[in-house]
Amino acid sequence: MMFFLFLAFVIFQRVCELAIAKRNEKWMKEQGGVEFGKTHYIFIVIVHVLFFISLCLEVLVQGKEISSYWPALVSLFLVTQIGRIWALSSLGKYWNTKIIVVPQAAVIKKGPYKFLKHPNYLIVTLEFLVIPLLFQAYGTLIAFSLLNALILMIRIPAEERALCNHTKYNEVFHKTSRFLPLPFMKKM
């Protein structure tokens, strides 16, 4: 029962985010926004959909139970959700699941973006670890952590290229780390 409630919450959240992304996409394109990375976007969608399918199959078919460490894992999951809301609300209408750049738009460096270039990707990476750990779905954890890393190796450079070419992104973020807010990690 806990698994189905948790899964329903996460899927509901993702559907809401897709609705927000669609609304933001419409607004950005009305402002002259241009989409980049269309060829890899479908793979991001596929990885995320397959993640939930794999999680369901592993938990239900193999009869996985909730981890005995569930209080710590749920707490970590809640922290990621706070981070997710902080990251999305910091970008406001500029947040999207796609790479859409409004040429010459002001680069946003507030909220978690004061410390990291890509806080939302860090949050997704943590979710791909925490959610399977919560239900002891180790196969899903390994497979989708690797697939997520692979897709981010394509996604992040594409996003940064688009932002550098059409905004002052490089000027604003030239001393900001991609994922770790540590002084010695600058210029990653």
From TrEMBL:
Its main location: membrane. GO terms for molecular function: methyltransferase activity. Keywords: Membrane, Methyltransferase, Transferase, Transmembrane, Transmembrane helix. The keyword Signal does not apply. This is Isoprenylcysteine carboxyl methyltransferase family protein. One of its GO terms (biological process) is methylation. The chain crosses the membrane at residues 42-61, 68-87, 121-151. It is a multi-pass membrane protein. PANTHER family: BLL3993 PROTEIN. It is found in: Membrane. It comes from the Bacteria.
